[in-house]
Every structure is written in C-alpha cells, then in structure tokens.
Amino acid sequence: PRSVSAAFQEYLQHLGLQDFPCGLGSWNKSRLHARRRTRAEPAGLEEAVPPGEESPEALLELLRDQHSPWALPPDCSPQDRLLREVAVLAPELLRGSRIFQLVKSLRILDKGVEEVDKGVLRFQQLEELILSANNISRVTSAHLPRTLKVLELCYNAVGDLQDLCARPPPKLQHLGLGYNRLCGPSQEKYLTVDFWPNLVSLDLSFNSLTDLPGLVSQLSTLQNLHILLLQGNPLALTPTYRGFLVDSLPKLFILDDIHIWPEERQQFHHLARQPELIRGEARVVVSIGELKGLPNPEAFQLLEVGSEGPVITYSYCVTYEF
Hints:
19% helix, alpha/beta, extended, 7 helices, eight-stranded mixed beta sheet, single chain, 7% strand
C-alpha cells in the first residue's frame, strides 16, 4: 500500500530542496567551508560574497519574488515556504533525518495514500497531520506522534475507529472524519472522553450514523467539545435533530457551521428531557420549482365543440431515491 512516508519523499523531491537556489552548490559553496571553521576562531569582518556565488539575501529574493521562475505559487502552504527558505539559509538542517524535526504541519492531499505507516513517528514535533482525499480505510494509533493536535482524515474510506482509538494522541484537539464510511452504533463507543480528553472540534459529517440519542450520550462526555459537524448523516433528518443537540450539549458553540446563540439555546430548553420526541423517522420536504421539456396539456384541449377528434391523456411520475 502507498504510505505517508512515500508520499512525503515525493513531496520533498517536488520542492527541490537540493536544487538552485536552495541547497548547497556552486552558488554558495564558500558558506559550507565557513561553517566548518571552529567556533573558537575570532569573528572578523563580514566577508564579501566570492565571484560566481550569491548571498543568502539574493537567494531568498529568488524564492519570494513572484516574477522569479523559482518562486513558489501564491497558494502554497506555510510549510512549503518554510522548508524552501531553510534550504537557503541552513541547508545542512535538511539533510538526513534532521528534516523531520522541522516539520510541524504535514499536508498530503489527494495522493492515493492508503497507509499511515510507522515512518510518521519520525516527525517528533508534528502537531498537524492533514491526509484528506486519500484512500485510507484504517489508522493505527501507534503510528501517530504523541504531539499531534490536529488529525484530518476527510474524504477517505475509514469505517472502523478501533485501531485509531487503541492509543490515540492525548493532545488531539481536532478530529476530522467527514465523508467517510462510519456506521453506528458500533463506532459511537469510540467517541468519548476516554479516548479524546482534549477534543475541541469533531467533524463526523456525511457518514452513515443513524442513532441520534446513542451518539449524543457518548458525545456528552467530551467536556471540551465546542464545534461539531453531523450534517449529511441520516440522523440529521430527524425533526428534532438540531434542538435536541443544542440542549443536550450545553458547551457546544457551533453546530454544522452555524453558531448557537443564547436565544436558540433557550428556545430548545429541556428538549433533551423528552426522548419520546426523538422518533426513528425522517422528514423530507421536496418542492418542484419548474419542469421543462414536457408537452403542454392545454394544447390538446383546443377542440371544437362536437369534434370527434381523439383525446390524448398524458401522465407523469417524479421519483426520489434516498
């Protein structure tokens, strides 16, 4: 299976950290010799840049000037820019395993990754891991750095949280599992404070969760949870969905990207104490605005009185699949 480590190596090659104006080469070879001098050597005046070489400032300008052929695109991530600039100012820091100490945010999007491998543990300072739009079906928590605060797995194929919750990162504040294959109630038991003591934000949108009271009973243990996304699940179609959540989770600030104001919380006060209102049914309202391409029935009614012309009847059926 294609791993996160393999995708990261391809990412480094794409950045060109060893190519001009980054890395070490004929454009800055004297700097390599200067750094080999002993620290005991008295510091003299700043030496002029030798002929044929470039100063660090000039090399940085080639990365930052948008008219430069070596400039990063405007929408590049802060991590891309950081690594490129480090490759200019201190290229020796990017050699060997030392590069893993610099990475605090790792974003690998839509690269066909299937496995979160053990190599991810080399990122000992990693705080943010974004692996959206890949092909990941399971995540082994033993392969995640303990320093992790953000884990985003949106648009994958995760259907089981057991391996992820075996030993989850204790400092995690955001867990993104939107657009996956989670089904309840077997997975709801992993969404408690026992596994996520510091979770502030949770995205479970567009899965197949159906048991609203059961899920809420688990989420209510997350004392730091302030942001929750559940839209796109079958349980979100129940008539009392939003009101029940607002009243059941008093520390929630945002539900499905909509802020919860005090007036709304007061409106649904005590709704959580009436479980009989949570029915196992959905309410869907469909309105048809306009239909095009159908014959107009009025055109067939313009028959003269006493005419023996045939009467043509048309009928139409509109169906919806859920």
